[in-house]
Amino acid sequence: MELDIGMIRGLGTLVVMIAFIGLTLWVFNRRRDRDFAEARLLPFVDDRLPAAGQEPAVRSNGQ
Known about the structure:
Elements: H1 5-27, H2 33-40
């Protein structure tokens, strides 16, 4: 069996298609909802209120 460029491209397309389907099933799996809900809130973790006795962090506006 000889591998020409068409066969290699076809196999590459098949691999990418299988990876896409697998990733899609993984993302939309109901068991992952809780993990993704936590991950959705990660950008806001630093916005928590300071602990008692600590001053709130002040951000500089660069002036």
